[in-house]
Amino acid sequence: MTPITLWQTLQASGAPLIPDGDEGRRWAERELADPVYDEARPTAFDRFAQAVGEWFANLFQVDVPGGVGATFALVAAGIVIVVIVAAFLIWGVPRRSRRAHARTLALFDEDDARSAAQLRADAADAAARERWDEAIVLRFRALARGVVERGVVSTPPGATVHAFARAAGRVFPACAGDLERSATAFDDVRYLRRPGTEELYRVVADTDAAIERTRPSVLAEVPG
After folding, report:
1. Residue pair 165/143 in contact by the 8 Å Cβ criterion
2. 32-63 confidence digits (pLDDT tens)
3. Which of 81, 222, 96 is CA-nearest to residue 164?
4. How far is CA 48 from CA 43, 101, 223, in A?
5. Beta-carbon neighbour count of residue 136 at 10 Å?
6. Alpha-carbon distance 20 to 27, whole Å?
7. Apex CA 200: angle with CA 189 and CA 187, to 5°?
8. Is the dihedral angle over the CA atoms 114, 116, 117, 120 positive or is it negative?
9. Which of 4, 64, 117, 211 has the highest CB neighbour count under 10 A?
């Protein structure tokens, strides 16, 4: 029963409009028993949200003696900034590291963890057994891995041998022609299945050796 309904009922019943103490208490108990008051009462979540809001409001108050509230707010803001920076350092750097590692492993559509020295040794072993196809492929990979290890040319996944040769030719202009011939030898053997020869192997090996002795002029990145 709402207050208006209670008033109308009292008027219709002829009951006294100014009750005594006991009668007033009974009226109040009946009125507060109405479900509408339960619905309007704040829930536990409402009280929690209000408490949190008051805490944040108090956090940034500046009228605390000695400016403690303002100082605490600045400290809290500093902690938030530190947490954000730490998150970038923890989760941002590994992503860059993984990307750099993927670029290091990728050599012309294949992953190869061998160093330039290992690839050269394997190429020399294949050449000693006159397995020229394998020797040419390995030596050209050694050439590419060598310039990547020196940090002068980057080979992203999907880079072709001729794109690499052009990029390396800008870094080592004196070897640009030999780089193109070496890339063609690699293409012929690796993709066109043409037979390798000792002569082609020597072209790739001599180009690799010349680049090892040459100082790079610029830095370059192979188009992906």
Report:
1. no
2. 555 555 555 566 656 666 765 666 566 555 45
3. 222
4. 9, 49, 57
5. 28
6. 10
7. 30
8. positive
9. 211
Q: Quick one: CA dihedral 186, 190, 194, 200, positive or negative?
A: positive
- What DSSP state is assigned to residue 106? B
For tokens 């030999």, the residue is 178
Tokens 């339960």 sit on residue: 38
Quote the tokens at residue 183: 């890339």
Are 109 and 93 contacting, i.e. CB atoms less than 8 angstroms apart?
Answer: no
pLDDT one-digit tens code per residue, 161-213: 999 999 999 999 999 999 999 999 999 999 888 999 999 999 999 999 999 99
Q: Which residue has the tokens 């030596």?
A: 139
The tokens of 20 are what? 């005594």
The encoded tokens of residue 71 equal 């100082």
